[in-house]
Amino acid sequence: MAKNLSGMEIFKLLPKTNCGECGVPTCMAFAMKLAQKNAELSACPYASEEAAKVIGAASEPPIRLVKFGAGKRTVEMGNELVMFRHEKTFVHQTALAVQIDSDLSPEMIIKIAETVERHVIERAGEKLFIESLLINDGKKTAAEFRASVTIAAEHFSGALILKSGSAENLIAGAESVFDRVPLVHALTRNNADVLGEYVRAKKLPVVIAGESLDDIFQLSEALSSRGHRGIVLDLSSDNSAAMLQNNTVARKAALAASVKPMGYPIMNFVTGRLNVSEMVADASTSMCKYASLLVVDNYEPETLLPLLMLRQNIYMDPQKPIQVEPKIYSVGEPSPASPLLVTTNFSLTYFIVSGEVEASGVPAHLAVVDAEGLSVLTAWAAGKFNAEKISSSIKSQESAAKMTNRKLVIPGYVACLSGELEEKMPEWEILVGPQEASDIGPFMKKMAG
Ligand code: SF4
Fold it and tell me: What predicted TM-score, i.e. pTM, was given to this entire model?
């Protein structure tokens, strides 16, 4: 097992020119990222051979970063460092894929691809959607599989996964959508030579599947020893308990014992289940521990909704509050004569305040100030929600200049800011609103007269 090096030990081996080509401004910052296993030494083009020898293995993330898809729809998996989120954080959320069988009619393939493409829900300021489509070869010829892949790709802009038992079909399909960087499923004992050579030459990510964990270990070791790092491990099982066990063993082996062939993202199929409840339950287990990529074969909204919401809850980083964009929002249909309320950009605060204002039936403007995602009292205590920030934020918004009402309502918890705000915004009447969101409704009605 490679010895862990401290940031300072790594820094001593770097060129110390601070050229920034590694993506961070200084060699020290890069050394810190390497020590945290959040970067790879190959990002520094000037690292010496000695540095590569000493730092190389020590700085490799225990679970490699693997990408597929292109442009804005690139899916990133791996780089995970912990077994449990509370130890630090999970880095990449489970990517979701919907499976389409290639022997469906072109019309049906188009229908499913477009349905998945359109399935976007907005929750707590985030857009939740399905990242990927898997085209499963229904024992077609290479030309037929390629045609189905092309149709699906034309009607889905996200990342693509191609699955077939035939290396010939996989290569034909991959060539047809090569610029979309598809993930190829799967390299097995039967096709390891042909497919291994192809993905290595084309630098395409590939899934390894096998009869057992041991089988997958050996295939992964063989492929990575030939320099290919774009590997995903298919640890699926029809039995949810077995899949959970496979996932946990692989994650532990990679993190706790630095078993390199297991240090790749995990893929699980939850397909062919008898009913939707069973599918959602098994998919949830897989998402909780430790699938980086999860494939389902149901695209109905009632199936996807719980998975998208569960995923958001698991992978939301508790150290980074979710935020809404700082700007002035309209609640109801406010006119220039409507009042202006102000709050912070912590999304929970925004959604509660805007919900209460909307329920009051009194249209209003709501100014959301950048307080680094903190709630009102916390932001005020941290000096991130003060009179200076509020006044400069509102003055920077064009829409505020057009307001004729000139009544600015601040949260009751920061009533102490009213005096300073009156000095900074003399053209506005500063009103102190309620402390609790539940009192916003009566307050708004009273203000509206
Ligand atoms: Fe330092 Fe290398 Fe990064 Fe340049 S690319 S800042 S030399 S670590």
Answer: 0.76
